[in-house]
Records
---
Amino acid sequence: MTSDGPAGRLVVVATPIGNMGDLSPRAADALRHADLVCCEDTRRTGRLLQHAAVAAPPLRRVDAHTEAEAAGDVVARVGRGETVALVTDAGTPGVSDPGTRVVAAVVAAGLAVEVVPGPVAAIAAVVLSGLPTDRLAIDGFLPRGGPERSVRLAELAVERRTTALYEAPGRVAATLAEVAAACGDDRPVAVARELTKLHEEVWRGPAGEAAAWAAAHEVRGEVVIVVGGAPAAEGAEGDDAVLVALRAARAQGLSPGRAAAEVAAALGRPRREVYALALAADET
């Protein structure tokens, strides 16, 4: 199988997040005419190609562990005039999935990159959430623990945009409890699972109630948590925003000094000012 012309290209192809009917004709055509398909799981992509009646081109595994190594080979192939398609198990490559390094390497080499747009779980969840969509953030998976997780939760507490988080089903209840502690029990959230599939479900309500709901139910399948933006404060860097972030960091068990250091770094405020606010807050 050869490319249509002498100029090679990388084609980033979005694939269904659940419902196989969401594979677009253009996506199927891009896979059909590729010289190589890079994918997370060759078996899963093989089933997708079979569903789309696409004669399977060569498949190469490119996941989080092999992407850096594969990027150089993709650049070489595209440079030789081949068409390389890039897919992940579900959704759009590069959006909390492998793909960013490959795209960056091809771009850095001055070669062509195209995209066949399609499903993104985070966008689908935000649309279904009923929360504002004029300003959005896709935060992906939170760090599993440690100071990095505390900082991200502190940032989420003062984030004015609607934010989408990905989470494994077994960790949903714990993460919602931390979101409620950081952002307040009344912060609106939506929990979307199994999007586009037979058992699609969206729970909507305050963060505190969401945490209780998740703790009382066995949450299965792929999950997106959508968190409403923080209420308007005096300013993005005002003391009110800093205090909200400090409360979130302290709720994660950080000392006043450590909380002040991490909030200062996250919000761009002098550490001594943030530490003074932390001490004052502890005294009240």
Note: The longest helix spans residues 67-79.
---
Amino acid sequence: MDEPARFPASSTLTFDDAELARELISLRDYLRWAASEFHLAGLHYSHGTDSAWDEAVALVLGALHLPWDVDPGVLDARLLPMERQRIVAITRERIVSRRPLPYLLGEAFFAGFPFMVDERVLIPRSPIAELIEDGFSAWFPHEPPARVLDLCAGSGCIGIATALHLPGCEVDLIDVCPDASDVSRINITRHSVGDRVRALVSDLFAGVTGQRYELIISNPPYVDARDLATMPQEFRHEPSLALGAGDDGLDIVRRILREAREHLTDDGVLIVEVGNSDRHLEAAFPDVPFMWLEFERGGQGVFALSAAELEAHAASFV
């Protein structure tokens, strides 16, 4: 059963904010006001939006439990007093605490589906969503993969979205953190995929010894020490275990490269996101033919390697 979203209580409103909630009436009023407040506060946007206006739209619609494609005629609807107070309170909380909006709403969208999120897991934002929506057709043009492993799964969004887009596949979600796996299980139940998707607590491949997959996908910790130290305040609400991975950001990726071949079928594929640490990866393994993927909606630092390529360059990963 989904955990309820946690909104700041209306009792936390100041007198001025309570007055504001009486003056602003329509959904359109709150969109304009929230966007202005976010712009003035100089917030950082990278958890599903990229501007003050988009953040305001996501907050107001999310607070009212309205879909992204709501009829524009709703913009001039009068809001109930409790709805107004909720929007004002969440807006103030976003500005004061710098908590990412999906944590305040308890929900994030990924590959077209909603996922429950809280501070136990990273907020979904991987460009791998495009590959999922396309069914990984570049590697599986005729028949989708039968077994998929989502490594360092966090909320389970990558693996669960894969199962939803490819209804014939079975998916294992692996994370070293029991709290993260608990969130994965909530999302497995939410999307009714428990017959094909399971969440396991494991240190990388330790929990799936002897098992092989046509596709292994991973969005592991990959932020290098320098980037981690200079990240905006919003990122400091996310679990540090899921972000940092040593001086060059490759502590976990090196292990994945060493161990993945043993868990891939002979025609299997490994897809891994390393973000800005792509430069470190190429410097560390100059002879490995990483295929760097391009995305229509933006994003970088995602590579693919075939099982044959992993085998051919196994000595490089030791």
Note: The radius of gyration is 21 Å.
---
Amino acid sequence: MKANKATLGRSLDQPDAALRFYLFHGADEAGSRVLADRLLKGLGAEKFVVAGGAVKSDPALLADEAGAMGLFGDRRAIWVEPAGDEVVAGVEALLGAAAIESPVIALAGALKKTSGLLKLAETHGGALSHVSYPLEGRDAERLITDLGRAEGLRISNGVATRVAGQAANNSAVIASELAKFALYLGASPETPRELDQETIDKLGADTGEGDALRIGDLALDGQLGALADELQRLTPGGSEVVPIVRSLQRRVLQLAPLRARIESGERLDAVVTSMGKALFWKDKALMQRLLSQWSAARLAQLAERVSALERRLMLSPVPGDAALGEELLAIARAARR
């Protein structure tokens, strides 16, 4: 069935146990991922990734994995990304199974109205489908307010507008920024805090860019020599560390949905060209290299590592330039493999 826009938040935060399959699709792939992550949190489950190609080869795989208990009795959610019509038979088997232990979450890009996967998700009572459109105006503010509430942040309309502008209405960046603000303010749903302009001045997405993006790109591109040179130029204990981490995080969040489109069958050149004015022409070759070097699965792992690093740096009382350097060099070595 189609998700009800008015009750979508409740459906994600308090999932219906009768639902076995969730499909997030649409042009705003970052937005779909934010919603899927929110559902994962609502389920209190760990992500268990299954490739769409594996489901195509073995349609019984989804039902088997969804019916299996976690190794230590922990709750799981089966995560399929990217998903398309190749998984229809697997989803049909899942929805027809006698019983399951874990729901399945599938992320797709834009689907045609004739898509078999879309029709199945929209018409079956055990499935929920939601389409994500690029954020604009009030939609962005509404998302920020909802996500902020889940993080324990009270956000006024003016502050929500500023957060949306700094994040260029990118849902994944917005979610990352709000999590960062909540961590800094010590906010939680049990102990809510007001997100004010002063906090955004200190930590916002457009704070302290400088050469931060270039240093992160050198790591992602595997340019060990140039990266080592840049790291030596950093001021020991200086203020560049957190902006570099945030720039790296935003680049990874930018790459992830693009790489998912490539793995679903789109050509690399077409994906890069579709970025239009969002990509500076001098960065086209770099973007092509990064999308060739990093798979969707590796980008997902990298996003988690970078987020963990940012949390450590923000909570540490000592300068984090050594920890940053070690992580960036590790990323550069991984890019060369």
Note: The mean pLDDT is 85.
---
Amino acid sequence: MAKSAKFLVQVIIENKPYINDPEGETIHRDLVVKGGYAEVKSVRAAKMLKMTVSADSEKEAEKTVQKLCEELRIFNPVVSNCTITAQKAG
């Protein structure tokens, strides 16, 4: 069995595409467009969590965090998408 290593796991939680995103819309309208970047057509906001996890592999670290997010209701799967990626911590 491989020795446990530390992995940095990123969790990105964002509204599903068909769900309104008032924060993103406000950033787009009041900052981006008014700031002179009319070529930017939309902004979507998201939350990112970073966790350091001890595991034997990236896949195991991702599975641990996926289970944690589902069991502890870190996100609402009805309205949000959750993307989880792990990489070996430096």
Note: The radius of gyration is 17 Å.
